[in-house]
């Protein structure tokens, strides 16, 4: 047995795969090229209808000591990940989506931080269009090098991804973690539970994952105008909110509601013009359930225009919300200075019925 196998625990990387014949090879090549060793790769072919299963089998045949393949009926991403975890044998656990790639030193970097006593480690990511890499500024802000628990760094709940993390399998099992089945956006409820359950987690600033953004719009995160997408989004937000409410720390709860859960709402607000009555009703019901009453989205970290749109949604003012989003699509919304500070300039709306909090532009925005 080599020094590396004695010195380092086995890492299992679970790779769920569905109809990714054009991408799977690149993902597996990146995992085979990891500087961390030893690595066990568990590919779960989730009932693919293309040649994904054959690609996985060919890699397993070429690397029988490193790659295992499960062929299952199609049950979705969460179920596929759970199936992979069940057969994984490593003391460490990670996840990679089959159309993405993992930089060569990613697990090495996270392992060095994990050895300091963390239950798991999370790193930054880069969005990747197949050619250009771009690290989101908000991810860079969330990932200073540190060891922490959730009360010290609640903003980390905004790091909702499954695949930029390295877990101790012992912690995963003790926390009774698994991925929700039959729902999209399954990452957030589980990663939230991990952060809440951890005695100490590690954070590294390194980019440890390249997240492919498909230009054909086929990613599930690019289909926000559908009722199914919005229902799943509300469901996973509510699951996440329930976990943090049970945790019982007011600061963590406030950060979750104002910074984390609100963070992606602008993407849904852009879908308001032309939306169906059913989609609008579902959007408003979800907004009121999380931010109704004195918890208004006007208190959130959304940009000024989207805070105003959130207020209009809360009030059921659909026509004005549509008008605002159409105007925003044409270009930036103007601003006007007042003795009390800067406000959005929206003469096309009934400003007399809009509270200052809905129009306010904060310093630095």
CATH topology of the domain at 1-101: Spore Coat Polysaccharide Biosynthesis Protein SpsA, Chain A
- Output the radius of gyration: 22 Å
Low-confidence stretches: 1-5
**Under the CATH scheme, which class of the domain at 1-101?**
Alpha Beta
Order of helices and strands: HEHEHEHEHEEHEEHHEHHHHHHEEH
What summary fits the major beta sheet? 9 strands, mixed
**What's the rounded overall pLDDT mean?**
95
In what range is the share of β-strand residues? Answer: 15-25%
CATH architectural category of the domain at 1-101: Alpha-Beta Complex
- Give the fraction of residues assigned to helices: 40-55%
Number of helices in the DSSP assignment: 15
Total number of strands: 11
Shape: globular
Structural class: alpha/beta
Q: Please give the alpha-carbon distance between the first and last residues.
A: 58 Å
CATH superfamily of the domain at 1-101: Spore Coat Polysaccharide Biosynthesis Protein SpsA, Chain A
Domain Glycosyltransferase 2-like: 12-170
EC number: 2.7.8.12
Keywords: Transferase
Enzyme class: transferase
Describe the fold and architecture.
The chain has 365 residues and is an alpha/beta fold. Among the domains are: 1-101, Spore Coat Polysaccharide Biosynthesis Protein SpsA, Chain A (Alpha-Beta Complex), CATH 3.90.550.10; 262-359, no CATH class. The chain is 41% helix and 17% strand. The protein has 15 helices and eleven strands. Strands 1, 2, 3, 4, 5, 6, 7, 8 and 9 form a nine-stranded mixed β-sheet that branches. Strands 10-11 form a two-stranded antiparallel ribbon. Helix 8 runs parallel beside helix 9, helix 9 (227-247) packs parallel to helix 12 (277-291) and helix 13 (304-314) runs antiparallel to helix 14 (318-330). The chain is globular, with a radius of gyration of 22 Å. The model is unreliable at 1-5 (pLDDT under 50).
